């Protein structure tokens, strides 16, 4: 009996290895071919100068593309815009999302599912469609934003809502918040629902209710969910592309570029492939750093 | 008591205002579709005088049907591949003690962090060299790859909590891991498969950047890229643009409303 048992074990162990390899390999192949090899290609390509049409004319330029980036005014504008979008998104999407989640969790009795469904809805609409819908709202001739401002006697921006970069970056934020706040709300709501009733009962005995209880007791308890929410928002803010592509194409005079649109411009409009790669490596480093932060915070959670 | 009432009014007021902010653009989209060109220009805040359908006729000329079919094909195959491949990999990572598993998992997380924009040029070159530009297959493959890391992480968390007793019993009966995975784990993983599939469908249906650089011929464009054509073709004909958006957006909204419970669950799980 005993001998028989050992035999099955040895047999199934080697079988395990075979099945495990069969199950694991497809994922590794896909990620290697389409994510890791291109990532390495980006790094290698960032040390060369070449264009799309002359794929074989690679010229070694060392760190030349990186030096060019540090001297490129528009690269810094794009990076600055990404950071503005990060901070504004955290305030607008995570901040407002937390308030909405708190209200839906304990603030109101009726209509929770309806409100949650409505506020979450924009998440399923493609960003291009979202941008085009908001384009008509911001339009200086037919847009309802102008119409509303005029009807209550306020003046409207002379270059339109998207013509002045100081204004259009905020219009982009309002649109991004429209699409993503519901997602943050649902994420944080799930965290809030994990806080047990006893905690609130105990807090009430200690005299903490309402906003006070929320600030001092609930928020610290959902700290981990908030960190995840902030990280997802930050990563999303570095990926932002469609709103800017549709609204302003990065203009006027590159004032609304972000890294994503600027890489696209350099690569596919100006055909500066090497330089686009160097910009991609900078984006890659930021992305990996954020990924590492996320991994660290999820380990703690 | 009155303090409680005021807090209640503020709470309802805030969610109501936010809901109006969310609904207003969708309402503008639908109403503009039915307005005449004159009404769109002269009465931005007004309701359509009569429900004209001519905007739809103009919108349909850009080929929305074919864009939708392309999006459907891309989403179907990519999501099928993502869910199958990720589920298999996550099962191995959560069950079998390979020494390299830890590094494989770290690699997967790194893959999750890399955005398509950061590998745009080499990816384009590769797909171009394989002669796969302007083919649905050429977008399905990289999209599948970019969907895998997140889905592996999602499945991994689910499998870790999965009771191991059933599998142990099956192992004693002589099943291999491969058999256990397909006969026991898959049938019991309905909820997490639904979550993963929904999340990836939303992402792939709406994916823009990779489709933009790889699909330049109208025959192969997916819906998000095709929608740009509305603007190119109908410049300031807002009725036609909004009609096209309505056709593209309303089916997605209906699917969302039917399955909203699963959508919400799928995304809410991310924070855990």
Characterise the protein shown here.
- The complex is a heterodimer of chains A (301) and B (272).
- By secondary structure, chain A is an all-alpha fold.
- Chain A has two domains: 44 residues; 235 residues, MetI-like fold (Orthogonal Bundle), CATH 1.10.3720.
- Chain A is 76% helix and 1% strand.
- In chain A, strands 1-2 form a two-stranded antiparallel sheet.
- In chain A, helix 1 runs antiparallel to helix 13, helix 10 runs antiparallel to helix 13 and helix 12 packs antiparallel against helix 13.
- Chain A is globular, with a radius of gyration of 25 Å.
- The N terminus of chain A is likely disordered.
- Chain B folds into two domains: 51 residues, no CATH class; 197 residues, MetI-like (MetI-like fold), CATH 1.10.3720.10.
- The two termini of chain B are 37 Å apart.
- The radius of gyration of chain B is 24 Å and the shape is globular.
- At the A-B interface, helix 1, helix 3, helix 4, helix 5 and helix 6 of A face helix 1, helix 4, helix 5, helix 6 and helix 7 of B.
């Amino acid at each position: 009996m005993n001998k028989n048992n050992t035999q099955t074990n040895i047999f199934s162990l080697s079988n395990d290895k075979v099945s495990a390899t069969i199950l694991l390999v497809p994922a590794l192949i896909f990620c290697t071919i389409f994510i890791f090899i291109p990532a390495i290609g980006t790094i290698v390509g960032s040390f060369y100068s070449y264009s799309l049409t002359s794929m074989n004319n690679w010229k070694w330029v060392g760190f030349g593309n990186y030096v060019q980036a540090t001297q490129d005014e528009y690269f810094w504008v794009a990076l600055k815009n990404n950071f503005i979008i990060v901070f504004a998104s955290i305030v607008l999407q995570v901040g407002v999302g937390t308030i909405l989640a708190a209200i839906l969790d304990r603030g109101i009795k009726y209509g929770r599912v309806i409100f949650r469904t409505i506020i979450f809805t924009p998440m399923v609409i493609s960003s291009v469609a979202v941008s085009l819908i908001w384009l008509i709202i911001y339009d200086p001739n037919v847009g309802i934003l102008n119409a509303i401002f005029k009807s209550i006697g306020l003046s409207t921006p002379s270059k339109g809502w998207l013509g002045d970069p100081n204004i259009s970056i905020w219009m982009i934020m309002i649109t991004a918040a429209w699409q993503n706040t519901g997602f943050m709300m649902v994420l944080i709501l799930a965290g809030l629902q994990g806080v047990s009733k006893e905690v609130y009962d105990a807090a009430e005995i200690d005299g903490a209710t309402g906003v006070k209880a929320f600030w001092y007791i609930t928020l610290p308890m959902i700290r981990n969910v908030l960190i995840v929410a902030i990280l997802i928002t930050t990563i999303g803010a570095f990926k932002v592309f469609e709103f800017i592509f549709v609204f302003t194409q990065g203009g006027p005079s590159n004032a609304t570029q972000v890294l994503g649109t600027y890489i696209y411009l350099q690569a596919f409009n100006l055909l500066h492939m090497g330089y686009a790669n160097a910009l991609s490596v900078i984006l890659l480093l930021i992305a990996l750093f954020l990924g590492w932060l996320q991994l660290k915070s999820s380990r703690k959670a | 008591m009155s303090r409680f009432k005021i807090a209640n009014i503020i709470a309802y007021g805030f969610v109501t205002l936010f809901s109006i902010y969310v609904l207003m653009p969708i309402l503008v989209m639908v109403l503009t579709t039915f307005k005449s060109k004159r009404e769109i220009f002269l009465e931005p805040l007004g309701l359509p005088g009569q429900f004209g359908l001519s905007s739809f006729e103009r919108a349909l000329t850009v080929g929305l049907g074919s864009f939708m079919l392309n999006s459907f094909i891309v989403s179907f195959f990519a999501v099928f591949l993502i869910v199958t491949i990720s589920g298999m990999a996550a099962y191995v990572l959560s069950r079998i003690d390979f020494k390299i598993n830890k590094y494989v998992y770290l690699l997967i997380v790194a893959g999750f962090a890399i955005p398509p924009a950061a590998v745009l040029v080499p990816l384009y070159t590769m797909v171009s060299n394989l002669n796969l530009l302007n083919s649905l297959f050429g977008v399905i493959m990289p999209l599948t790859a970019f969907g895998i890391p997140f889905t592996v992480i999602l499945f991994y968390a689910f499998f870790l909590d999965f009771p191991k007793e059933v599998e142990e019993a099956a192992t004693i009966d002589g099943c291999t891991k491969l058999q256990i995975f397909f006969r026991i784990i898959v049938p019991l993983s309905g909820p997490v498969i639904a979550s993963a599939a929904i999340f990836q469908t939303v992402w792939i249906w709406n994916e823009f950047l990779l489709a933009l650089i790889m699909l330049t011929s109208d025959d192969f464009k997916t819906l998000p890229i095709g929608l740009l054509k509305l603007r190119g073709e109908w410049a300031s004909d807002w009725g036609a643009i909004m009609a096209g958006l309505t056709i593209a957006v309303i089916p997605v909204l209906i699917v969302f409303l039917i399955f909203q419970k699963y959508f919400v669950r799928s995304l809410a799980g991310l924070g855990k």
